């Protein structure tokens, strides 16, 4: 005889068993329900599953984020001032100004009276203007130029020269003639029996069609140091020397680094006055 196949029991479940099953289902359902704690959302899942923080995904599904974040790069100080006014964050923000790199960073969610995320920022870098960059890049004896080259440089940048007149400086560069006179002064016998002769080299220079034009020792520039900034007065000393029968010209700006520092300090003062924010010297 064949053994009859096993069949499921048709015995009704007891009330206790039903209650236990319902409790287990309720607990399992509770584990799978997301729970919100402040702005974070968590969910407990059975073993073998990953426990993930889905807060960002939920936040991105909203019409607006829970808090401001991100960094913008601005091209003018006025734009930074406007943004500071729009954020109305003077109580929580700091502005950091770094003179070495000429950068300014506003951190709107900084750590002042309470902890801040420091993720909502604005950057501004004070960039040199093309005209100031040209004068800086050609500054010093290492950039000495021949008469024609120097005259062309002056002509290309006439608009920046304020004192003396740019035309006068251009005429000097194009008409300067110089010659050297050597005057022997003395001769004396040294201990080794040799004679030593000393001499003075005099350079006589004149400019103008008839040599009557005065050669200025210095000239002044009126340039904007930073883009979208105000004009600044710079002084420069005019230099020249004889080289192989010709003349080499150059100029030496009078402490240009001081002018840069002063212009950047002006930006710091403007920020303090117009934004009401605390400005610190340093890096963010």
Describe the model.
This protein has helices at 15-31, 55-60, 77-87, 130-137, 147-156, 166-175, 256-275, and strands at 35-37, 40-42, 70-74, 94-98, 103-107, 120-125, 145-146, 161-163, 177-189, 195-206, 218-224, 231-243, 246-253, 278-281. It has 284 residues and is α+β, with helices and mostly antiparallel strands. It folds into 3 domains: 34-66, no CATH class; 70-125 and 264-281; 130-253, no CATH class. The strands form 4 sheets. The chain has a 5-stranded mixed beta sheet with strand order 3-6-5-4-14, with helices on one face. Strands 7-13-12-11-8 form a 5-stranded antiparallel beta sheet, with helices on both faces. A two-stranded antiparallel ribbon has the order 1-2. α3 (77-87) packs parallel to α7 and α5 (147-156) packs antiparallel against α6 (166-175). The radius of gyration is 39 Å and the shape is rod-shaped.
């Amino acid at each position: 005889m064949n053994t009859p196949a096993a069949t499921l029991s048709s015995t009704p479940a007891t009330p206790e068993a039903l209650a236990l099953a319902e409790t287990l289902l309720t607990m399992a359902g509770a584990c799978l329900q997301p729970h919100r704690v402040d702005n974070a959302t968590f969910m407990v899942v059975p073993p073998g599953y990953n426990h993930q923080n889905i807060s960002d995904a939920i936040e991105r599904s909203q019409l607006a984020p829970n808090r401001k974040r991100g960094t913008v790069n601005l091209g003018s100080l006025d734009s930074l001032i406007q943004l500071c006014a729009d954020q109305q964050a003077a109580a929580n923000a700091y502005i950091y100004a770094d003179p070495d790199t000429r950068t300014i960073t506003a951190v709107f969610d900084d750590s002042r009276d309470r902890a801040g995320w420091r993720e909502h920022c604005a950057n501004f870098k004070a960039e040199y203007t093309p005209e100031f960059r040209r004068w800086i890049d050609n500054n010093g004896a290492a950039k000495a130029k021949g008469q024609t080259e120097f005259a062309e440089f002056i002509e290309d940048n006439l608009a920046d020269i304020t004192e003396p007149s740019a035309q006068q400086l251009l005429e000097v560069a194009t008409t300067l003639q110089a010659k050297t006179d050597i005057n022997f002064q003395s001769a004396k016998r040294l201990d080794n029996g040799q004679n030593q002769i000393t001499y003075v080299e005099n350079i006589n220079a004149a400019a103008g069609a008839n040599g009557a034009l005065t050669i200025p020792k210095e000239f002044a520039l009126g340039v904007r140091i930073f883009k979208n900034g105000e004009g600044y007065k710079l002084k420069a000393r005019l230099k020249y020397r004889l080289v192989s029968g010709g003349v080499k010209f150059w100029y030496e700006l009078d402490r240009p680094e001081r002018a840069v520092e002063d212009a950047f300090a002006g930006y710091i003062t403007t920020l303090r006055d117009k934004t009401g924010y605390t400005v610190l010297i340093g890096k963010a």
